[in-house]
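ok new one. same drill as before - structure tokens go in, u give me an amino acid for every spot. 140 of them this time. try not to just spam alanines like last time pls lmao
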């Protein structure tokens, strides 16, 4: 099994709450950053999707916290797209310390919105594959 795509993020002090923990919303920002970095590594750029008249949308996000994260920590954020047969796809992400300790998991359900019809496209995997320079990076 291949290792999932991962990006490292350094936790900055202004991203923490009054208890010194990483703010809940920032977990979601790190997750979205990793998703876009995976797409970029696959050669998929936002402008390419917009040129096709589509844009990714988030339909649902869930965070599972396992360990605290504080300013100065490094966090590795993995990202794997899981496509099925429908209009939506799942993104599974683990956030770990560099030593492999799991600190959080983020699960996202997303889709590709047709910007003129304002509806999800029927097969998002094909849209991604159609613009990807390196489709294997994103599991396409």
């Amino acid at each position: 099994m291949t290792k999932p795509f991962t990006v490292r993020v350094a936790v900055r002090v202004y991203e923490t709450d009054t208890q010194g923990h990483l703010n809940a919303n920032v977990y979601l920002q790190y997750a979205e950053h990793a998703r876009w970095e995976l797409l970029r590594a696959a050669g998929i750029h936002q402008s390419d999707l917009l040129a096709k008249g589509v844009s990714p949308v988030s339909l649902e996000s869930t965070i599972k916290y396992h360990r605290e994260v504080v300013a100065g920590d490094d966090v590795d954020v993995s990202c794997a797209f899981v496509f099925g047969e429908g209009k939506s796809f799942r993104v599974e992400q683990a956030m770990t310390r560099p030593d492999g300790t799991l600190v959080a998991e983020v699960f996202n359900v997303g889709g590709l919105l047709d910007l003129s019809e304002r509806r999800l496209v029927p097969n998002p995997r094909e849209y991604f594959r159609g613009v990807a320079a390196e489709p294997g990076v994103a599991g396409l």
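Residues 5-138 form a domain with the Thiol Ester Dehydrase; Chain A fold (CATH 3.10.129.10). and btw The longest strand covers residues 102-114.
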